[in-house]
Model the fold of this input.
Amino acid sequence: MSGLRIYGIARTRAYRALWMAMELGIDYEHLPIEIGDAGARSPEFLAINPNGRLPVIVDDGFVLFESLAITLYLAKKHGKLYPATLEGEAKAWQWSFWAIAEVDRGVNIWSLHAVRLPLEERNAALREEALKIIAAPFQVLDAALAKTPYLLGDEFTVADLNVAAVISRAIDMDLSATPHLKAWLTRCLDRPAARKALALKTKAENATPPEVTRRIARINRL
Ligand SMILES: N[C@@H](CCC(=O)N[C@@H](CS)C(=O)NCC(=O)O)C(=O)O
Done:
């Protein structure tokens, strides 16, 4: 089958690929498969992505996993939101790798224990620990955004999409210590494509049974 297929329910990191596809205005098919044995760890899916994780895309037969590799690939392929210079491209990679390495896990753990798990199953110690881990990188991001409205300058690019998508759940945190980060994140998430993607994500989130959220919490504590 030709065209772009995006695998993964919008509650997962597939949201990042969906947001990018919406920004680019390209045609795609969304296959909202779930994590676990009935979805991403089924034999059919493992044949596409042996990691058993979401998202993965198949673009005219080309298979790619890792959410931020997917957004970078799509932006570059479609010539939109992608830096025009070698240095700009390197900075987009820098911020993308930074987001995965420095803040992805912390924001995820915080959101599980602040918002997503049933109230009585939230662990305040894990929540506080997660906040401590992300405090320093959030200061780094705040300082960068004090200089320019977007990470690479005056324009929204794939670098902003990647970092904002990774920390999108931080919008529910108290961000008063990082006002530039807060204003930038609000700006990014307010874009029409971001709102559309977020609506899909919220809908999927609201339909997620508690046992799936518990499973996510178990995976993330590893
Ligand atoms: N670094 C990967 C992480 C992928 C990932 O962990 N996806 C989660 C959903 S958000 C998943 O599939 N978890 C289920 C599992 O590990 O079984 C990416 O950014 O694509």
